[in-house]
Amino acid sequence: MKEMLHRLVVIGNGMAGQAAVEEILQIQNDGYEIVVFGAEPSHSYNRIMLSDVLSGKRSFSQLNTKNRAWYEANRIRLFTGSPVTRIDTERKTVFTENGYFSGYGNFLLATGGVPFIPPIKGVDKKGVYVYRTIEDVWSMSEISRYRKKAVVIGGGLLGLEAAKALKDNGMDVTVIHLTEHLMEQQLDYDSGIILQMLLERTGLKFRMNAVTQEVLGEDSVTGVKLESGEVIEADMLLICTGIRPNTELARNAEIMVRRGIVVNDFLETSHENIYAIGECVEHRGMVYGLFEPLAEQARVVADSLVGSGLRTFEESPLSAVLKIADINLVSVGNYAGGDDCEELIYSDPAVGIYKKIVLKENRIDGAIFLGDTAQYRDIYDLLRNNAVINGKRQNLLLGGG
Q: Is pTM beyond 0.70 here?
């Protein structure tokens, strides 16, 4: 029993689980046993860089964050290819698909997200992919060697990165997007249109305000049919229509779930000694899928588990960063503005520059920087610190004192 009290079991060996383990080791490296279960067969890697592997710019080995020797050196028991299928909260034991089980004193859910797949006829055909794991990337890279037409459904952050990576890998790529402008969850209309123009210059094609009705082909994909009746040829279909928190394990264990696994400011779930972190988490009604808030969550949960227990996770402004084809884009907070907001805008579509700062009660509430992001870090800090804006407003967009 004493051994169980000092054992932490982590479900998930992705970037969130890995970050939490590293933070724990920074605080305490002795007397605390850590067991990690990962569903994927490989050890941890940087998922943010998958597009570089898909485009051929990097090898998978360059994405590895920690190898097995690191786990062994830190006395961490790592089980890869071991999806956890059940959590017994009464017996404080977890069970895996391949027969492993482990008791725990504390428990950390880092189950990440799962791709959302729309109900499209024929979506189960060969050649249809989601964009989540290195195995997905390897399969698409193999197809791109001898097939040359790809369709990507989804013009959000992930879809655009994947589309450009496939283009760089020699494919003819068409992006199908449901709304009238790209990245509508991070950009306003004008910036979305400028982004599309810049991406079209790289050779990407777009169908906007378009709904995919059917995936064509017998066993394998040969094309897609839109509701408009247009048919687009395709040897590969990539679906990038969003990520949903992976909450199945928690829900089955009767841990509180809404959109994600509900956690308090210490990242503890509704069950004592069970914590959660990353894309699977819902904190104060918000779900975060980007690295910056994830890194802060890792610091908080490590403090909760082996530190002072005083550090808390605060609401973090939602942000997005896109860097493809020398196009720099960042968006943060309330980019859309509103009746009670003031907007500062500088736009030069011909050269692909768009800057927008949204002010509310003389404080920055959101921003978009496309093409020129030099001032972004200063603007982000002002937003994060809820600073009162003094001086000339145009300097926020153009720099200067």
A: yes
